[in-house]
Design a protein that fits this description.
The protein is α+β, with helices and mostly antiparallel strands and 418 residues long. The chain contains twelve helices and twelve strands.
């Protein structure tokens, strides 16, 4: 019995430290509870830190950032967006995209969003005070794990860029106009001769008419002849003045179909006296079947006038100066798109001094000139090149020293279907 009791006592002593299954389960649950609390707190802290971090990023964005619901209702934006458009945080929830974009832009943005991510869509935002703000818009769509749809937009304010580009275009237009006036200044001697000739004729035949009227007999046929000559010379002087006004006037930037052959004919008529004074033989090969180009007659007059004037000057020492002008249609590669297109080509060739090979790559650079100081600023061909490129054309030049030069002006052909 004692042995049995002793064994029972020892069994009690061994079993007593052990926990019951319920106690173990409780301890395990407590442990998991503590770990869960720690993990939740840690996740909350991470979420809060991420929120603070993202808020700081949005606050420092110089672009306009905003988030919209599936129905394009604004729910969030950065401070720059609210500041520029004049909205407040309280407006969100009731403020829709079509509040600050017009209906056409709103429909287009919906189409872009439906198609997926988009970039560089230019439109206008209307601020609360009515101010128009030109922006470039990028957008994408986010679907959360719960299935909610959000449209995220980043808009770059393009107002300053558009203002700068507008000023650059104004400066370019002014530079082109200055180039035209400089060209007219170089033609001053020829223009003076152009006007002197009809004015002298008018004076001469007017005096003859007065003599006829004061004579003993009235010579009516001679008086009529003198008066008709006076009328013709007045018309010629008027044409010269009209041409001067055309070449000197500022251009309104607009484009329309232009006949190249007509422009070349007008220029040669205008330069007729200057060409005769320089004993220059002119050969014309104008293709009457070429289509028009899409441009501006005054700008294109400036292009061909400048090239022809350069040709006249380059033939100053030629024994038998000859100017050849030819127009024709040809296919060529568009330098920008690298696609083959139909072009109207105007080839202006002279037999003057030519251009040195080292200078061929520089002749269209601004302020490059081989003339003596005071005889030119070197802007003529630079302006010519810019005008042609603005009309989606290009210029090629072939020349050798002592063998003259040929300028090939390529301008896109304008078809009626276009």
């Amino acid at each position: 019995m004692l042995l049995s009791g002793e064994l029972n006592s020892r069994r009690f002593m061994v079993d007593s430290p052990k926990q019951t299954p319920d106690a173990k389960l409780v301890e395990l649950l407590e442990k998991q509870k503590r770990e869960l609390v720690v993990r939740v707190l840690k996740q909350h802290e991470e979420v809060q830190s991420e929120k603070v971090f993202s808020d700081k990023i949005l606050a420092n964005l110089s672009d306009l950032f905003f988030v919209m619901t599936e129905n394009f209702v604004l729910v969030k934006s950065n401070e720059e967006f609210r500041k520029l458009l004049g909205f407040s945080q309280e407006d969100f929830g009731s403020l829709r995209l079509d509040t600050f974009v017009d209906d056409e832009a709103f429909d287009r943005i919906k189409e872009l969003v439906a198609a997926g991510e988009f970039k560089n869509f230019e439109t206008e935002f209307t601020a609360l005070g009515g101010e128009k703000i030109r922006v470039s818009l990028n957008g994408s769509t986010l679907i959360t794990e719960s299935g909610r749809i959000f449209h995220m937009m980043i808009a770059k304010d393009m107002s300053d860029i558009h203002l700068m580009m507008s000023r650059i275009r104004e400066a370019q237009d002014q530079l082109i106009h200055s180039g035209r006036l400089a060209s007219l200044g170089e033609m001053a001697a020829g223009i003076g001769h152009e006007l002197t000739q009809p004015l002298n004729a008018i004076l001469l035949f007017a005096r003859n008419t007065v003599k006829c009227l004061n004579g003993p007999t009235l010579n009516k046929p001679l008086i009529e002849e003198n008066l008709q000559i006076i009328i013709d010379r007045v018309k010629k002087a008027s044409f010269i003045i009209k041409s001067l006004k055309s070449f000197a006037r500022k251009v309104v930037p607009d484009t329309y179909p232009v006949e190249i052959n007509q422009i070349l004919t007008n220029i040669l008529t205008f330069l007729d006296t200057q060409l005769k004074l320089s004993d220059i033989e002119v050969e014309l090969e104008l293709d009457s079947t070429i289509p028009p180009t899409f441009g501006h007659d005054v700008r294109l007059e400036q292009v061909f006038l400048n090239i022809i004037q350069n040709a006249i000057q380059s033939m100053g020492d030629a024994q038998s100066p000859r100017l050849t002008i030819k127009t024709f249609s040809a296919k060529n590669i568009d330098p920008e798109s690298l696609l083959e297109k139909d072009y109207i080509v105007t080839a202006i060739r002279d037999n003057g001094a030519g251009i040195h090979p080292d200078d061929l790559s520089k002749i269209f650079d601004p302020f490059f000139t081989k003339r003596e100081v005071g005889l030119g600023m070197g802007l003529g061909l630079s302006i010519v090149d810019r005008i042609v490129r603005n009309f989606s054309g290009f210029i090629k030049v072939e020349s050798s020293p002592g063998l003259g030069a040929c300028f090939f002006v390529h301008l896109p052909a304008h078809m009626e279907k276009e």
